[in-house]
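Two entries, shown back to back:
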Amino acid sequence: MTSLPPLSFRLLRSSLSTSLVGSLLTWGLVLGTRVGAAESLTLRWGPLTQTVSFDDLDRFAATGEVPRPLSPYRALLTDNLQTTLRNEISLDPAVAQDYLDDILHTPGGNQLLATLQALVPNLAATDLQIALTRAARSQQPLTLTNLLRHLPPASLELRLGTLLSLAAQFQLAQMENAALGRLLRHELAKTPPDRVPPSNLDPFSTGSSQVERWELVLRDRQRERSIPVDIYWSEDTHGPLVVISHGFGADRRFFSYLAYHLASHGLTVVAVEHPGSNVSALMSLPPPASDAKAEGSRILPATEFLDRPRDISYVLDRMEKLNLYSYSLRDRFNTEQVTLIGHSLGGYTGLALAGAPLDLRQLAETCQHLNPVHFSPADWLQCAALDLPVKYANLKDNRIRQLIVTNPLTGLLFGEAGLKRVQVPTLMLASTRDGVTPMAQQQLGPFEQLAGPKYLITAVDGTHLSVGDPENLNANLGHIPFMPELPDGASGNLRVFLQGVSLSFIMQQTSEAKAYRSFLSPSYAEAFSTTQLPLGLSSTLPNSLQAWPRLYQQRPHLQANWLDYGPSVFHLEAINLREQLQTLGSQMMTYLSTSPPSLTTVYWPRPPRRPQLQAHRPLRHRATP
């Protein structure tokens, strides 16, 4: 076999060492481990090939020692890889089979398969399905190496040229996200603090009301849907009603800390659980139909995009009746003034109820051209809506008077202009390291479209789950590559800040609006900021981002070439450089105006004097008399 040029491989290795696509090569390195006749993997770059022995890879997995033939791949053979190869996978193979089968019948799944086949031409979807089926029947613990041993015999070939192209796309996407984070961090640092008047209120601390939580299950017989709810209330109930909608794969306890906090200040809170997209539905998928294409997605049924808003409207109808007829809860549900708090898919739910119509007419083309390298789970989830029999639906509920949406899923679910019809006051939270609903496409761009009064909380280095209740989150979610989590305690200040800002925002519907308005200030965001998680609060996007094309690009996932990311990254880096120069110039001017340079007289040493030569006068001879 012809070996690969060392320089070319070093270039590939440096491009992959910190990227997700690097893990694809890692998977490629283990795909043929002792499967039938396959004892090696062929790496191909054009006419050049190199063979990797899997016996050497097994030795590395068992001992951590890098054999000499694998030494060129040392940068990829990390401790994390060794742990991954040996650890048991906490996933039921039958459940994994359901997920794989469901994903492969979506438009995004088709694109993913096309990419995998370009990368590893001999690997087919049926190979993965057969391996999962065999692993499910096996009595051995499910580890990565054991799973891969169940692949049918194949001679696998990994194309390094394709891998390098994918790595470049992914790396540029990461660079764009990092540049955006640096820009927002810089914007927060230069925001001048406001003068906040003293106040006896403290919306960030727990209130004085004693909170009770009641659990109910409401049965919507018309839709054959049972909806669990938690009601948080106190004897001091007053003000608007707060309704909470959780995200995909979560439950009604996701914001339990926030519900308790708001109820302790006298608000009634109703946390709704959506039965078709909660954690229970995710862990117990229905059996596949005979025609999976006709059935649509089982992971997220398309009907959820209609049923979720209707769940909220149904719950409000029932709360109206309890407000009139319940002995204990009478007059505790102000259903004419409702603030909806939604996270992720719950954010979509709130925006739909606030007036943004579900409009799928422009979504189909995007879903047919998803680029698997840099598209997000939010893109996959929104494409599930295409299975709906309708392409347009108005789900507005006029009882929704305010919105608080954290890391919302928006995409193209509302068309290109549907969010302009949201005129209720909205508080939105966006996180720069959100790998599920990326900040630029899912929050910053949509925030610009909102027509009503609005505030934006920016959590620099925050993630998709940073606002969730730590005691009600599945710890395993933080190990998913696109859902990285901050260390324990790092996001505590964010949750406390969200408590106070949410209360102050909700109270803008009451006669106490003026007293709470001062807490909707950037100064309080700065007070709760940490070095690890800086926070910002504003009513507009930074001026430096107003001209960033990505915010107004309605279909960013039609990008198919890594060169498409270049202008965006260059634009952000140019803004960062300009801001740094402006800050440096401002600092210099401030220094010169407050500390003028002192004038110092410098005396240069005089050169030594040269002895002056006296001119010799000509001797005058006296005349001899």
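entry 2 starts here
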Amino acid sequence: MNEQDFLKQGKELLKNGISSSTGFVHGIDIRNPEHLIFESPMEQLSYELMGGVNMKQLDRLRVTLKVSRLPLLSPVHVYRNTVDLYSDSQIKRYIREAAEKLELGTTDLTHTIYTLVDGVEKYRMQRRKEQLLPQRPPRIELLPQEKTKAKKLLKNPKLLSEISSLLASAGLVGEENNGLLLFLIFLTRQFDSPLHALIHGSSGSGKTNLLKTVINCVPDEQKHITTALTENVLFYPPYKDFWSHKVLMLEDLDGSMNALYTLREFMSNGHIVKYTTEMDTVSGEHKQKKLEAKGPVCIVGATTKDKIYEDNSNRSYLIHVNESYKHQQDVMEYQNRNAAGLIDKKEIQKAQQLIKNAQRLLEPLEVRNPFQPELMLPQVVFKPLRTNQHYIALIKAVTYLHQFQLEIQKDERGLFIETKLDHIEWANKLCRESLLRKSDQLSGTQRVFFERLKTYLKTQGITEKSNKGFYSKDIRAHFRLHTQTLKRSMNAFEDLGMVTRIGENRKLSFEYRIDVWDDYELIESGVDLLDSRLKELREKYPDA
């Protein structure tokens, strides 16, 4: 029997109402798969399969079987033993010993045991067929008042601003642009080629808080959250569509180092395949087995490292958390208010539920951007081919979110909605910081430190014109950095020709001079090309 026939039989079983969801199959109580119960009131016998049934080895049916008399008058009238129900000799011995223990004749036991064997065999085959059928979490049906509120939100002319406010109500402190960008990235889970994101920041900078706050606003049936995972976990989903059109959130990528390559391919291809070998239980020979996991899946994770995940970073939006002093103060103020009971937890849940319900109302529609041929990424961006795809998908996500405010059009290819210039403006605003990071030869952490270093030196009268030097000892004291941390940063700046070591003093340590002061400004001016192009499009298409 081929797989198609197998699936067809499984669908027929479900259609006829024979399903494990009913609680009973062939007279067997299967509500607890680890403890199957079969009762025979006529013979006053009860059978229990302790530990359930092995679903993989179809050539044997080895179970731990407990049989009791009904009603149970004494613990003595119970017989337990392990038996292979596909072995007649073992069944006969079990019947003989059970009859002696229960003080019964063998006739009643023989009839009920073989009835049980037949039922368990059919139950196991049915469960195998059900596992091959496509499975999805149950669709959540919204109440009329929930639908009304969600539609009102989706029809709001200032939809993204309203969602930003709701994210703040859900517990997001600051990080308005990062929160919205992450929300839109999560929304692309519905696309054939979803976006992915890496959240960068130092330890304790609020990466996980940003991730968790936004992921809590994603419907529960459309996400998987894990602290760490292994490569094999991806290849053994509980059912075929387990990963498909879901968000996979990794709280810390450091816990998934061994799975980075597989995750990277999952990001690029939308599915992964691996061949392995398993021993045939009958012949003892090793046979080839194909393992496959189907997506697409939106993968998001947090890390304190930049360079280790460079290949993964190329496939993702890079989101760097705000590590400014003011933002830290705002977060601590929120934590203090929460500890004092001044934060209404019901309001948080209300905001989360409204955003979830709005996403549940969105229908899969094709998005077309008539302006895309006239949009161009800045030349300063590294790996423009892949980054351009990310830019296209982000604009598409903004348009997709606004579908309740757009006219649904139809042609020979089907239904679709079209992008507006306002959607491109939002995409430009939200992806600006990520494009800057992708255009910079410094990592995010290095760039933040280098810009803070230049700002501090200017307060000390050291500018591009003065061309004065500075000592690493003073920098280490001001920024309270570990010696090795500062050394690694200065070495990186030297290697890129941005800083020169001009002297050494045993008391004052190394002396440096900054050679490049305006590199970041040049990158920013390059990224400004997006806004300039948008301005031209507004003049060219005033009604768009």
